[in-house]
Amino acid sequence: MVLWGLVLGALLVFTVGFLCLLGLPRQRRPQEPPLDKGPIPWLGHAMAFRKNMFEFLKHMWAKHGDVFTVQLGGQYFTFVMDPLSFGPILKDAQRKLDFVEYAEKLVLKVFGYQSAQGDYRMIHSASTKYLMGDGLAELNKTMLHGLSLVMLGPMGQSPDASCWREDGLFHFCYNILFKAGYLSLFGYTKDQEQDLRQAEELFVQFRKFDLLFPRFVYSLLGPREWLEVGRLQRLFYKALSVQHNLEKNDISSWISYMLQYLREQGVAPAMQDKFNFMMLWASQGNTGPISFWALLFLLKHPEAMQAVKEEATQVLGEAKLKARQSFDFDVSILHRTPVLDSVMEETLRLGAAPTLLRVVHGDHVLKMANGQEYQLRSGDTVALFPYLSVHMDPDIHPEPTAFKYDRFLDSSGSRKVDFYKAGKKIHHYTMPWGSGVSICPGRFLAINEMKLFVLLMVTYFDMELVDPDTPVPPVDPRRWGFGTMQPSHEVRFRYRLRPID
């Protein structure tokens, strides 16, 4: 027993000494941002950062100012918190701040997809062609059909659909948006009942992966959880396989275009399967959670709900479903909903918290808006966290924690685009989709999918919270930096299709 104690003690001393050596070489150089290596050699601030990124960065900002470098698990991240200084980072005319390198490492780890040269341009080309203009209009029609199928069933409205039902609002929104989006993008078989069952089964597995996702990215899973992630990855590779796609019709032109490109580049079918999993996550991982926040805010703010309903009546008329009927209207109305647009933009301001990352290639000088210059070291990562530095800035958005449905409407009822910080007009006043080269290429599809869902809910359904006094739940702190926030707990609500007169 004494011998084992000595051995373990020696190992501990060696390990601590080794970690200390790893942390010693890094010292702040002249003109570099303040450096905070943290309390633990090599790990630095990793544990505090992963526990609650928002609170950690708020503390670092107060301690060091608008620019600071922190050590996180052996890597160094320079956070820039002044939104007036974002421009040079997002535009990067010198091409020294690389988004693609970090993204490629992430998708390889999470989805198993090995990116090839040209993939990034291909995805943006496909998105420009099929997720904008006429291509987007066509996909909006497909998405409306998918929502109708999921919400009403293959036969349309059933006679008992007007009965009250109860569910968790988060589950309800995520479930519907995932299934409708999956079917609209990856197609249908001849048996729609079977399609709905498979979509439901996939959603259950998707949520399991979703819950493990933050700790998976940080490599904090336990042994059984690593096995579970592997099982889930294999399940999605099989369900989304190009071989399985051959059995389907109406696969979206967006997905088909990208798969055709991969085939022409000689990418193996197994890698195409992984690409499909990546695109499913990218397209469906955020729309459900944001729709939850949108409906919850409307239910908690009757004046906002009334404004959206009045606008929906203006563009849709007195829309009512008859028995065995599906949702069907001209999707061009999505261009005539400024109130709903403002609601969604405000929801995204409050509910989307991505981190924008750029790897520094070659030592680089960052010039701030106030004229101060900082040296950025090659190999470090520059990071922006707009939720804290922009969305929650009271100078840009007065009462930033409050939901104001008309925050993005000007006095004429049109979209408001003039926002200011320190008396200067600011270009990046919200950044839920990222910005610059890393802006989400599917943002127009995502926002239209969510708008269609909210329009359907406020137009055709009655909704109410089971407990009208229930507060808006806090966000799950594990999701900071990973796109859309999720609630820390469920909110129960009741809903029904409005009865036919």
From TrEMBL:
Heme binds at residue 440. GO terms for biological process: lipid metabolic process. InterPro entries: Cyt_P450, Cyt_P450_CYP7A1-type, Cyt_P450_E_grp-IV, Cyt_P450_sf. Substrate binds at residues 109, 286. The chain crosses the membrane at residues 6-24. One of its GO terms (cellular component) is endoplasmic reticulum membrane. It is found in: Endoplasmic reticulum membrane. It holds the Pfam family p450. Its cofactor is heme. Keywords: Endoplasmic reticulum, Heme, Iron, Lipid biosynthesis, Lipid metabolism, Membrane, Metal-binding, Transmembrane, Transmembrane helix. One of its GO terms (molecular function) is iron ion binding. It is a single-pass membrane protein. Belongs to the cytochrome P450 family. This is 5-beta-cholestane-3-alpha,7-alpha-diol 12-alpha-hydroxylase. The lineage of its organism: Eukaryota, Metazoa, Chordata, Craniata, Vertebrata.
